Queue: 2 jobs
Job 1
Amino acid sequence: VQLQAYGGGLVQVGGSLRLSCAASGSTFSINVFSWYRQAPGKERELVALILSGVTTQYAEPVKGRFTISTDNLENTVYLQMNSLKFEDTAVYYCYAKQNGMSYWGQGTLVTVSS
C-alpha cells in the first residue's frame, strides 16, 4: 500500500483547508484510515481516524472543527479542517492499517498564520 498525501499549505487563522490522501496498490481490506500531525518540537499525535469508512474519532482539540471522510471508489481519505488555529500548524501524515500492517504517507505541511 502506498499513501500519497497532499493539500497542505498556508492559511489564515479561521480559514479552511482540505487534506487528501490517496491510497494505491493492494488497498483491499484497509479498515483504518487516520490522520496524524507533528508540530515543531512535539510528538506526533493522532488527529482523527475512521474505521471501516463509518465510525470516526477525533482528538479533543479538533472536535467540531475537523471532519475525516473516505471515498471508497477512489481509495482516498480526506481531512476537512475548518476554523483553523495557530496551534493547528504541523506536518500532517495519513496512515492506513491493513491486516495488522501499518502504512504511512509522506507528510504535508499546514501553516496557519495571522
Note: The mean pLDDT is 94.
Job 2
Amino acid sequence: QVQLVESGGGLVQPGGSLRLACAASVSFFSADGMSWYRQAPGKQREFVATISTFWNTNYADSVKGRFTISRDNTKKMVYLQMNSLKPEDTAVYYCNNAGAIIPWGQGTQVTVSS
C-alpha cells in the first residue's frame, strides 16, 4: 500500500529548530525525487524543498539557507531540518514525490510562536 507518514512537528519559539521526517511506503523510492510542501491556514499548499535521486536539492526562496532536505534510501525516509524558524513558517508540512502524485499523508503541524 502506497503511504506517506510525516512526523516531527510541534510548537517552537521563533529562532528555534525542528526536524521533520517522512516515511514513504512506495516502490522504487530511490529512483524518485522527493519533496516537502506546506499549507498555512487559508492558503494554498506550496513547495518548500526537493531532493533528486542524485541528491541535488532546491528550495523555495523563503526557506533557502534555513532549511535542509535529506534522504535515506535504505530506510525510505525523507527529512527536513528547519533552523531559524519564523512565525510565517507555521503550517502543516507534507512530503510527496517530486510530481506530487502519491496520495497525500496527514501531514505534521509546525507552529512557530512565542
Note: The radius of gyration is 13 Å.
